[in-house]
Amino acid sequence: MTTTAGAPGDGSRAPVPPGTGWPEDPATAATPVAHDAAQVRELAVGAPTLHELVARQSVCRACPRLVDWREEVARVRRRSFATERYWGRPIPGWGDDEPEIVIVGLAPAAHGGNRTGRVFTGDRSGDFLFASLYRCGLADRPVSITAGDGQRLRHARMVAAVRCAPPANKPTPAERDTCAPWLAEEFRRIEPYARVAVCLGGFAWQALWPVLRQTGFVLPPRRPSFGHGAEVELTRPGPGRKPLLMLGCYHPSQQNTFTGRVTPAMLDTIFRRARQYSGLGDPDPARSAPPVAPPSPA
Fold it and tell me: Which residues neighbour 237 within 8 Å (Cβ) at sequence distance 6 or greater?
């Protein structure tokens, strides 16, 4: 049987209890909590709305290793963030509820999303990504600092294949599979609006194929290889519907950006292609040079 989300007991060093005022927290103390893979499946499919689905994602406790790690990181903290409260919970999907473009990542970073409460927010990978999204007209601001900072995605939604920060950024296959119903159900609900799925990295590319199969897409006999700029056009279930473009993109990790494997121009090319395929047209050329980042919220 599932339980509801209760408040941890060690004050500000504990993960944020649901419904206690954290900006953009979708959950309340009454949100049901999954404690194993079967409950993840039950709660994902049974969520009555997209908002309730992401609320249930944000309190999941189905993977003991990931729960222990995310909460330990929230208690110990990195020295540079020692005075900040950490979110310390799973990171729910975020962005437009009816997105033309779905951005799929691996998992939140221990001191990024696990700290800020928003996917791809609070670390250098996110800085790189949001700068590109801003230039390409898919985000309101060129930086994403923390939940509640006024950032908003336009025509896009971000989701992670695994919702908790994993040790060494490496979830196990069992953890990936346990978390998969959250991704599958979220994708099923936004699929009618989506025209492009941008996969940030090979892990996200591989994780999305089973979701597409479950959603009824016609898949090629052999799974296409991941690569930067790789494209696969997929037929949707039902007659007369426009196809979905699956688009590969190297992950904007620090290793990739520092070594030049991923450059701002490469990322912009991907998101401009996503805009073009989705029928959104070209972004505002005035955004080619992002303005000075806004100050952190108080």
Answer: 215, 216, 217, 218
How buried is 219 (Cβ within 10 angstroms: 0-12 exposed, 13-18 middle, 19+ buried)? Answer: middle
In the chain, the number of structural domains is 1
Cα–Cα–Cα angle for 200, 137, 191, nearest 5°?
A: 55
Please check whether residue 206 lies inside any domain of the structure.
yes
Report if residue 181 sits inside a domain. yes
Evaluate if pTM is beyond 0.85.
Answer: yes
CB 153 within 8 A of CB 94: yes
Kindly list the distances between the CA atom of residue 94 and the CA atoms of 33, 79, 199, 204, 230, in Å, as whole numbers in the listed order.
Answer: 19, 28, 16, 16, 25
Range of the domain at 102: 92-288
Run of H or E residues at 94: strand 94-95
Please provide residue 79's backbone torsions phi and psi, each rounded to the nearest 5 degrees.
Answer: -55, -40
Q: What is the DSSP string of 11-24?
A: GGGSPPPTTSS-TT
Q: Kindly report the CATH number assigned to the domain that includes residue 137.
A: 3.40.470.10
Assigned token pair, 183: 């991704």
Q: How far, in Å, CA of 48 to CA of 45, rounded?
A: 8
pLDDT digits (tens, 9 = 90+) for 156-211: 999 999 999 999 989 999 999 999 999 999 999 999 999 999 999 999 999 999 99
> Which of 248, 283, 291 lies closest to 267, judged by CA?
248
- Examine residue 278 and state whether it is found in any structural domain, yes or no: yes
